[in-house]
Amino acid sequence: MPDKLRVRFAPSPSGYLHTGGARTALFNYLWAKGQGGSFILRVEDTDEERSTEESMRAIISGLQWLGLDWDEGPDPGEFGASIGPHAPYYQSMRRPLHQQYMQRLWDEDKVFYCPATAEEMTGSDGIKLLFSPYRDISREEQQKRLADGQVMPVRFRCPRDVDVRWEDAVRGEVKISSNEVGDFVLFKGNGAPLYNFVVVCDDIDMQITNVLRGEDHISNTPKQILLHRALGQEPPMFGHVPLIVGMDRQRLSKRHGATAVDAYEEMGVLPEAMVNFLALIGWAPGDDREKMTLAELKTAFDPTRCTKSAGAFNQDKLKHYNELYIRELSADELTERLRPFVPPIWFEHRGEDYARRVFVLQQEKISYLTEMEQNTWYFFRDPLEEDSNEKNVAKFLTGNADAKKVLGEIHDAMESLSDEQWAEERLTLIVEAFVESSGLGRGKVMQPWRVALTGDSISPGFYDLVVTLGRDTVLRRVEEWLKKL
RNA sequence: GGCCCUAUCGUCUAGUGGCCUAGGACGCCGCCCUCUCAAGGCGGAAACACGGGUUCGAGUCCCGUUAGGGCUGCCA
């Protein structure tokens, strides 16, 4: 393709950005940017009944979160404003253009005002008619009815018996008979333009070269191709990607849990994990690569490699990608990403460095950012009796005959250490000496300590725990238990 | 109902007539490591929906069946 690709993502702001839409946006972005083209965001808000500003804001922030920056489209900084040579990018603001194209179709007699009632558009079998019985009504008659104040929709006079074909970027040649299309409506009786017409006007005006969308749009494609031709334009290249379904192969819905991307953001999913995961539903690079960054995806993406069957949203896999990306974060990055997910006071408790050290200790153990808080709280607060796991307290402390000795002897030895000596090397000497003299296994020694220090039997490695908590905290917590045993 | 689409392990997929006794990943199971939990390492179970063709040869091409899905709006 000699000309630069111009690809658009055109969501209708009637809900949140769901995972299917996010993936469509991603594929469009990858296709455009991989070819050095432009990624355009256009708001399909022709249905004023259902479009909301709130929804548009959610979609914009969802795309931004994923890192899918658009070259032209709504100004993310100012709602309603647009950036780009074909502004505005809100369809509802492009009425003059739509009127202009409508005028052309009218002048060339390619559309007609349809006076058919609902009954007249219904066949004897009760099924909707595709072609209007008034499609050949004279212009004089149309104008007369208009003059009489009759409210009529404008329909496209669809040619009969022609095959509409296109080379679909993902499914190859597709052919649909115009007899399956019919005289579809362009303008409602109240004068409001409809989707199929507006899309074509805007795609022409914005010089869109490639359209990649969900396969639920396949039946719209012949309508749009017919309209492009009626307007004397070569249609863009179309591609239709399969839908994303739930693990039960049903269309994604609330039943399947979170469907909005911002819900995953709140869940502590990293955008790079989400992007990677989404990219591999319905597409694969062809080699065995699985973990790919947005940049890598850009260069590898090829719509002809898209799958033709629906892919299921497997949250276990998303979780896996999230673990992968969390693990490779630097200490600083990890801390910044975690900031919205833990109490602000944690950073003041003993300072940023302390918080960072704690987070790194658990970095490899969490699947979602939201899990950090529940895994590290005891680094920021002494575990109270009620914070502690009752069963483990009973097993390793209160119901353990060796507990007093294990805690006491090691405590006394540790107490002789200065803050400077409080490091893994010296601590190891103490613990190992006790292990040897007592004849108890390391597990029998370390578990009571772990429960005393954290309230539970699960924690980072013993020395990491003791060193990070520090001398004062460790001794204080153990002394508390010594009093009770 | 009509029109259209799809069909490889539970899931995401590789596979474009011989390289396939079907590869990778998630999940699952086992073992190793080990102070707990993870991580990591090693290994394992697990699929070409079914039936006909075409061909020397079919997961790969064709037809049918079955099963899913989409569309069928004066929504997008």
Comma- or semicolon-separated keywords:
single chain; 485 residues; mainly alpha; Rossmann fold; two-stranded parallel sheet; 20 helices; 43% helix; 10% strand; elongated; RNA-binding
Structural account:
- Strand 10, helix 6 and strand 11 form a beta-alpha-beta unit.
- Helix 1 crosses helix 9 and helix 5 packs across helix 6.
- Helix content is 43%, strand content 10%.
- Among the domains are: 148 residues, HUPs (Rossmann fold); 44 residues; 103 residues, Arc Repressor Mutant, subunit A.
- The termini are far apart.
- It has 20 helices and 13 strands.
- The protein has 485 residues and is mainly alpha-helical.
- The chain is elongated and about 110 Å long.
- Strands 5-6-9 form a 3-stranded antiparallel β-sheet.
- The model has no long low-confidence stretch (mean pLDDT 94).
- The structure holds one RNA strand of 76 nucleotides.
Largest sheet: 3 strands, antiparallel
Number of strands: 13
- Helix amount: 40-55%
Percentage of residues in strands? 5-15%
**Average of pLDDT:** 94
Q: Based on CA inertia axes, which overall geometry fits?
A: elongated
Radius of gyration from the CA trace?
Answer: 32 Å
Counted by DSSP, the helix tally is: 20
Low-confidence stretches: none
Q: In angstroms, what separates the terminal alpha carbons?
A: 79 Å
Strand order of the largest sheet: 5-6-9
CATH C-level category of the domain at 94-241:
Alpha Beta
CATH superfamily of the domain at 94-241: HUPs
Short description:
The protein is mainly α.
Topology:
Layout: E1 6-9, H1 19-34, E2 38-41, H2 53-66, E3 73-74, E4 82-83, H3 95-107, E5 111-113, H4 139-147, E6 154-156, E7 163-168, E8 172-177, E9 185-187, H5 195-205, E10 210-214, H6 221-230, E11 237-241, E12 244-245, H7 261-266, H8 271-279, H9 294-300, E13 311-312, H10 315-327, H11 331-338, H12 346-349, H13 352-362, H14 371-376, H15 390-398, H16 403-415, H17 424-438, H18 442-454, H19 462-469, H20 471-484
Parallel strand pairs: 1-2, 10-11, 12-13
Antiparallel strand pairs: 3-4, 5-6, 6-9, 7-8
Helix pairs in contact: 1-9, 5-6, 8-10, 11-13, 15-18, 16-17, 16-20
The chain binds one RNA strand of 76 nucleotides through strand 8, strand 9, helix 5, strand 13 and helix 10.
